[in-house]
Every structure is written in C-alpha cells, then in structure tokens.
Amino acid sequence: MSIFMLADKAGRGVMGEPAYLEKWISTPTPTAAGESVYSLTFEWDEGQGAPGAVVVKNHHPSELYLKSMTIENFPTVGRIHFVCNSWVYPVKCYNYDRVFFTNRVRPYFHSYPEFNLKFFNN
C-alpha cells in the first residue's frame, strides 16, 4: 500500500512523496477482533502546510478495509485524523485512486463543489 499526503498551498494541491506500508503481513498490532494497526513514516515539508487529504493505493492482490488514519504530533496542528470506513481495492482493479479527507477539509468542498470537480477531473 502506498499513501500520498495532499495539502493546499496558495489554492493548488501539493502532493508529498509516497509512504509505503512495510511488513504488512508480519507485524500488525492487534486492537479489536479482526482489526490491526500499522505504522507509516512520512517525509513532509512543514512549509507545505498540514495535509488535508491522503491518496491511498493498494498494491496488495487483495482488498483491504481502511477504517481510519491518524497523523500524530503534526507541528502547529497536533493530531490529524482521516475517517475512511471504506474498502480499498487493488490498483489493478481501478484506473483511479482513493482519496480520503480530514473533517477540517470537508466543509470547504461542500461550500465550493466546482473546486471539487476541477481537482478530480485533471
């Protein structure tokens, strides 16, 4: 699985470098029954601002259910939470990426639906 973080800088999306989920099969941290927690390390320039969205690509042959993602201790923001509650199918099944937004970004898109269409129809 690869994940890209997106931020808005001067009205344009800025995409960071991908982070890859390593040791997916061998080192999950169990939480509730049937759930696992994994850690990722992102490289991110603070000058880009806080991420408002993530692009998730599943390179595994099987689908996965992504409940949520959390970035802890982001400078000047603290905790950034992405509620996903969605299946992410392998990249071979679709020609588009899965994008998940923080709750901080969603009200912006509801106010400006034309931005939403422009952003995803490039």
UniProtKB/TrEMBL annotation:
GO terms for biological process: lipid oxidation. Residues 1-102 form the PLAT domain. InterPro entries: LipOase, PLAT/LH2_dom, PLAT/LH2_dom_sf. It comes from the Eukaryota. SMART domains: LH2. GO terms for molecular function: metal ion binding; oxidoreductase activity, acting on single donors with incorporation of molecular oxygen, incorporation of two atoms of oxygen. This is Linoleate 9S-lipoxygenase 5. It comes from Iris pallida. The lineage of its organism: Eukaryota, Viridiplantae, Streptophyta, Embryophyta, Tracheophyta.
